[in-house]
Amino acid sequence: MRAPIGDFDDARLAADCLELLPQPVADAVRAWHGDVPAEQLIHVDTAPEIADTAVFVEYYGRELLDVSANCVVVAGKRGGESMLAACVVLSSTRVDVNGVVRKQLGVRKASFAPMETAVSETGMEYGGITPIGLPAAWPLLVDSAVLDREWVLIGSGARRGKIILPGKAFADLPGVVIVDGLGRGQS
């Protein structure tokens, strides 16, 4: 199979390589539903040491920066209560945590969640967190620019591998809130 974007040696349907995905991601792929069929979720096998966006696009081509997205876990606080959420923005931008995220979540303070929290709460590897398979109760803030891409490359839940899916598929993920301007400036 050939990936719809990029030049990858090993591209397969995500449903055909569930053993490479962390349990919550594999479960979400198995249960996939929505306007985009599961056959449009493509897993590309890549080395864990090139998982970080800057290294990844150097290796596979800078043109992938325009179709790559990052998923980050944020923690918000209001009063004595804490909450977790995830944000997805194009890799060429940064999540506006102190402005857009804070307002969207209705919290007084928002910050990136500590690595240990992100990993333990998602069941995924740091540097590979994906919006596919996140806890259903979490708000999932997705920059509207992500939905505008025909295809998007995102983490697979593990540092090994990425998932390619249509941008419009993000609108069907649990807890999704589409937000204009969630990603700001260059990363």
TrEMBL record:
InterPro entries, alphabetized: YbaK/aa-tRNA-synt-asso_dom_sf, YbaK/aa-tRNA-synth-assoc-dom
Lineage top rank: taxon: Bacteria
Gene Ontology MF terms: aminoacyl-tRNA deacylase activity
Classification via Gene3D superfamilies: YbaK/aminoacyl-tRNA synthetase-associated domain
Organism this protein belongs to: Streptomyces lunaelactis
Domain YbaK/aminoacyl-tRNA synthetase-associated positions: 48-171
Pfam family, one: tRNA_edit
Classification lineage: Bacteria, Bacillati, Actinomycetota, Actinomycetes, Kitasatosporales
Protein name stated in the entry: YbaK/aminoacyl-tRNA synthetase-associated domain-containing protein
